[in-house]
Known about the structure:
By secondary structure, the chain is of the alpha/beta class. The protein is about 40% helix and about 10% strand. The protein is globular. It holds the Pfam family adh_short.
Amino acid sequence: MADLVAVVAGATRGCGRGIAVELGALGATVYVAGRTTRTSASPMNRPETIEDTADLVTKAGGRGIAVRCDFSVRADVEALRARLDRLDVLVNDVWGGDPFVDHGTPFWESDVDKAIAVHRNGIETHLIALHTLLPMMVDQGSGLVVEVTDGDDETYHGVALPYYLVKSGIRRTAQAMGRQLSAHGITALALTPGFIRSEAMLEGMNVTEENWRDAIAQDIHFAMAESPHYVGRAVAALAQDPDVGRWSGQSLSSWRLMREYDFKDVDGTQPDWGRWYEDVFGKGLDPHTLNPDDYR
């Protein structure tokens, strides 16, 4: 896989960083694209940077190349495209909508400008990335496109309307692209993590990656938390699968692909958020009576 070239859009932190690093572990060249650099912060106001992610990619065994890119700005994405000689994997993980989402307010009472900002950050950025970068894959006649979302079906879980529209829109984008691109030898799909243990989530829980289990006392469902590397290993498995086209157009999850490819998280376990969710929320089992180890 040393010849593999990937672009991870939104690779500064969270899932994007985990995916970039795991592609790097395959020996791939990974263009780490995002807005936050060591000299310029994004509106997310987080400390993680694309340079840090690129260093982690290189440390993992690949070649990390940091590219400052705002995917809502076409000129930025076109400049990224100009740096590429080929493109084997495109991971569309741009989000940046958290500061604008209000899950506790009815839509008609919410700030419509923030709702539109969520749409622009979460949907328009993905469309711009696809429109600009897909022609390279079409010319090659090969490639893998991963649209990172939240959830693997259209069930509404009470989140804010703009958030739901973005995440379901990403799944529908993957479905449509899967249909359109399969004739060109390209596989497009959507992928969701489970209960992601991102940097922001750890900070919010006042724990670190080393002691994250201490936060289970605050939220029992955190017992199923998975590191960003878990979904990264799902993407790495897809990138190595010669029959990856069978997933075209589907909405997949880290836990479903774990069952298929048998990869593990960084702690050696295999968290199965889907089975936990079905038992707790589907069957009504009391999570406090369950042994989390039986789901990992």
